[in-house]
Design goal:
With 140 residues, this protein is α+β, with helices and mostly antiparallel strands. It has 7 helices and 4 strands, in the order ααβααβαββαα.
């Protein structure tokens, strides 16, 4: 019985590590993205998502819509949700060096990874996620 419990616990922990794999890398972006001058907010996810994963997308989209409505209309900022299990998502993840669920701001030649903030605050304190997004994006 104890052995079965440990096996089940290991399987659950393993599945969670694959479904909510937060990234912490900070790197450079391609020359074409740098030249576009547009701020891009990417949310990479898998097909099967937990409530927190959905909340990250919803709260990020909501914050971008509210904080940067003018910039959205002028196409100075974009929110892009990509499924890592689809071709477009795989291709962009490879280009940006992403391997798991990630909330990433690409601005100028810099990437700012807000995945940890997303998982910490999207469901429990969306205002803190909003503040982190605003700090990372800044003025547009």
């Amino acid at each position: 019985m104890k052995r079965e419990f440990l096996l089940l616990l290991n399987m659950v922990l393993l599945s969670l590590s694959y479904s909510c794999n937060a990234q912490s890398d900070k790197g450079e972006v391609s020359e074409s993205q740098l030249q576009s001058g547009m701020v891009k907010v990417y949310y990479f996810h898998f097909t099967q998502r937990c409530a927190t994963c959905r909340a990250i997308e919803d709260e990020t989209k909501k914050a971008i819509d509210e904080l940067y409505s003018g910039a959205l209309e002028e196409e100075k900022i974009a929110f892009i949700a990509l499924n890592l299990e689809e071709e477009d998502g795989e291709r962009m993840a490879e280009k940006l060096n992403i391997s798991g669920q990630t909330l990433l701001i690409v601005k100028g030649g810099e990437q700012v990874n807000l995945t940890n903030e997303g998982f910490l605050y999207a469901r429990t304190d969306p205002e803190k996620l909003r503040e982190a997004l605003q700090k990372a994006i800044g003025e547009i």
